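Letters spell out the chain; the tokens describe the backbone. To illustrate:

===
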Amino acid sequence: MYVKKQRLLTPGPTPLYPPALHAMMGSDLHHRTEDFRTAYRSALADLKEVLGTSHDVLMFAASGTGAMDGSVSNLFSRGDKVIVCSAGKFGERWVEIARSYGLDATVLKAEYGDVVTPDRVEAALAAEPATRGVFVQASETSTGAQHDVEAMGRAVARTGAIFLVDAITGIGTMPLDIDGWGLDIVVGGSQKAFMIPPGLAFLTISPKAWKFASASSLPHYYFDFAKEKKNAEKGESSWTPATSLILSLAEALRYIRRIGMANLVENARLLARATRAAVAELGLELFSPGSPSSSVTAVKAPAGMDSGVIVKQFRDRFGAIIANGQGSMKGRIFRIAHLGYFDFVDLFAVIAGLELILHAQGLPVDFGSGVRAAQNVYAEAAFAREAAV
């Protein structure tokens, strides 16, 4: 009651993997030395392996939005026709970036909590054969919804367009067959499933996308993909790199390789399923029940209550930081994350805290019922697996 440990329960930044945090202390390393070149090459190779792709991987000192921005400025020209899927705050960001560079964007809009379906993408591509690119979020973190990027990718691959996926919270929380599904650009960020602080953006770029880069006429300087690729092949970044974060990433990648990316994804999916079971048991409603994400669960605030009350109670009572809604959803939903360095003990505590908070607000709560629902999901998955070994 008196001792409170701060706990990050947001979809970014996420809890830090301790050995990765410790690795940052070795950052008194000059970035134009062979020691750093070895570390940089190793991090890029491990990132490529963990992502399961044969495509080139580039890395920048930036937030994930930097790689999104660079994807537009490096691959398109003013006036190019593109399709942007927008179902939340981050879909709107794709729209803003595309239009800021003068692209002719057709926006396929879905209401917050819903998703853009693959058939709408196919129809839009058929209606405009000159489309050069399709943009989407794998996981729309602002609403807790997940797009069907596999079906979308296969549809785009049948055309001359390229498919650009913001997978900043999708990586490590959902399967992503980058090469097999035709995902030409996949954007990620350090502070999500990779369990290290913000500041690194990376992306995969397909051979098809590289052809677009050679034809692009938009200006770019810092985010210059061709220059970055050339330097990366020599073990260097074009600009001063975030050395401490790259060392940290290398340690986190070793951990992910050890447990397996598929198991990291399954961990998030189980936590998400357990959270959905718990909130349903507590009489709460999911905000995106049709296509729920495994990166974060968005929950509607109880009738008559501002979700900010729940967010504030988590912070004040337990030192825990969960996320409010964003944009028009602020005050209407709260969000509990599952990506990265989260485990079931974390989740049991979150649900127990939520029960106490709801009780403190005068709502009827059967203490332990939500925790029990989460425990049942754990028991079903863990004990069945142990029995099969």
In short: Residues 18-259 form a domain with the Aspartate Aminotransferase; domain 2 fold (CATH 3.40.640.10). The radius of gyration is 21 Å.
